[in-house]
């Protein structure tokens, strides 16, 4: 197995790696100062080179995984072939202790799997190599359907802690004082992956060199099965499979045909935000008076994970909110149940049928439409609000619905007054404001989520995350390096315990608690998150 990601390669173990490992356990041992250093001193002192070589050769001969078997470890190379370390995984017990896996055990979606990373070559400890390697390793396990992913370290390993947070892990469990390293006592830390952040998608306009992905999709019969059997006069079209030839020498011409005609027409890739992986494509283009035709295509290996629904949502946002398209239309066979379901869920209406020929016979296509007015009436839009009076009115209305959080009239009035002059976003459906967020600049490189609220009936619909994302992107564009937020410390009120859990899930970390900033029964907890 080999996984390529940017200029990193994760690959299966091979015999030439043995001598590298011998060197890393005898001469180049600096990595052991950070990876479980409480174990390494004895390991290095008792290391038997001959026995180790024989043990690894035996493993290669009799136990190395083959084909699609689970990889519990992969070696890390640069794209130029330099071997720099290894990625590993292990299972955990219910109390987050290491446990061995059975010889044929395959972890399911809810099986806790801990991921680890060792860059033994210290010359690669900077430059983003760890980020790229762990990104590829996380992606491997997510692609296998695993959703309970963790990483474990100790509180003195600040480099690994920073890497974990950067890639969407948040502190899940802390065991105080269980690790002793070089005469100091440290905490044991378990971080859990926020898989929601890894499932966030975005649209991007591809460059000409990115058309390798379109070529790969169009060469894949599973991806292009929907396109087979039509009466199409497209050059390179294979009627039996639906595939279309797109050789590299044609990429520049194809790119000019597809890209650069916005807002009249749009072509873009669906990309996973965290790791930049391309998952599919979307498009829309004029198709009659005040009507735009559209399409959503996912690469076959990416199907079955809800990406189709999210890709359609992104297409609708682009068409209706960014480019002002008045109406979208799509048509496909009635047998395509998944496509029909996500279109109906997005608000499309069936407006008729039409006839077409496929594989030499007449078939019926469903015709579905959605207008911009219908979309705006039924979907939540995160809108930037510029009018001070409107900001104040929205804040006052929403906060009045949240007495468990904003029950002190004087402080609530102050929030409303200050919101008038701050960057402000509303979660709006039709003409109703369901929630809001106001952002306050606190320094040249830092900003604060000054106040945020979502009406109780709309909790757990993802509106808070969408509002945060709007503020986060705004802060990033303006050069902020950190965002902070203040709330009541956990353990005092159930409502605020849920608020703390929300910020933790967004990737925030506890910075400090100020017990008397507000009053003794409302200790102020400050949370902070990097803007990357």
Shape: flat
Oligomer: single chain
Strand content: 25-35%
Tally of alpha and pi helices: 16
Account of the 3D structure:
The protein is of the alpha+beta class and 532 residues long. Helix content is 31%, strand content 33%. It is built from 16 helices and 23 strands. It has helices at 17-26, 37-45, 49-62, 129-143, 158-166, 195-198, 211-218, 221-224, 251-258, 307-322, 337-345, 372-378, 388-400, 409-419, 463-477, 494-505; strands at 2-5, 8-11, 73-78, 83-92, 98-99, 113-119, 149-154, 169-181, 184-193, 201-204, 266-272, 278-286, 292-298, 327-333, 349-358, 361-371, 380-384, 424-429, 432-443, 446-454, 482-488, 509-519, 522-530. The strands form 3 sheets. Strands 1, 2, 3, 4, 5, 6, 7, 8 and 9 form a 9-stranded mixed sheet that branches. The protein has a 7-stranded mixed sheet with strand order 10-11-12-13-14-16-15, sandwiched between helices. Helix 13 runs antiparallel to helix 14 (409-419). The chain starts with a strand and ends with a strand. The mean pLDDT is 93.
Draw up the topology in text.
Layout: E1 2-5, E2 8-11, H1 17-26, H2 37-45, H3 49-62, E3 73-78, E4 83-92, E5 98-99, E6 113-119, H4 129-143, E7 149-154, H5 158-166, E8 169-181, E9 184-193, H6 195-198, E10 201-204, H7 211-218, H8 221-224, H9 251-258, E11 266-272, E12 278-286, E13 292-298, H10 307-322, E14 327-333, H11 337-345, E15 349-358, E16 361-371, H12 372-378, E17 380-384, H13 388-400, H14 409-419, E18 424-429, E19 432-443, E20 446-454, H15 463-477, E21 482-488, H16 494-505, E22 509-519, E23 522-530
Parallel strand pairs: 6-7, 13-14, 20-21
Antiparallel strand pairs: 1-2, 2-3, 3-4, 4-5, 4-6, 7-9, 8-9, 10-11, 11-12, 12-13, 14-16, 15-16, 17-18, 18-19, 19-20, 21-23, 22-23
